[in-house]
Amino acid sequence: MTIYRKRMQIEEEFQDLKSHQYGFGLRYCQSNRMERINVLLLIATLACFLCWIIAIAAKNEKKHHGFQANSIKDRDVLSNIYLACQIVRRGINFSKRALNLSLNKLQTLCEQLNHA
């Protein structure tokens, strides 16, 4: 069940990459040149990495519930990309310590996925 949940989360992240409404809008890149698409994907990957750090910081500090339209508190409802984009738009800041903790947690999650 954990692997399926992670798979769905990855699929949602790809949807957010393509969507202009919930993410980065890569579907509108209007390029057929592979070099340009590769550069855009690299930039999007770096942006996703930052979004994950921001989203994890928001969840650690319980700042993410205010972005949900429902009252579910026991599981994630919003994708990390969407949540981070909303946080950045609203100008919510985090301390360096909170972001470092997020980075450490992200590293732990990656290590767990590698061993699954």
How would you describe the overall organization of this protein?
- There is one protein chain.
- The protein is mainly alpha-helical.
- The chain has one domain.
- 65% of the residues lie in helices and 0% in strands.
- It has 4 helices and no strands.
- Helix 2 crosses helix 4.
Brief sketch in words of this structure:
This protein has 116 residues and is mostly helical. 65% of the residues lie in helices and 0% in strands. Helix 2 packs across helix 3 and helix 2 crosses helix 4.
Mean pLDDT: 84
How far do the termini sit from each other? 12 Å
Q: Approximately how much beta-strand content do the residues carry? A: under 5%
Oligomer: single chain
Write out key terms for the chains shown.
116 residues, mainly alpha, globular, 4 helices
Topology:
Layout: H1 2-18, H2 34-60, H3 80-90, H4 96-115
Helix pairs in contact: 2-3, 2-4
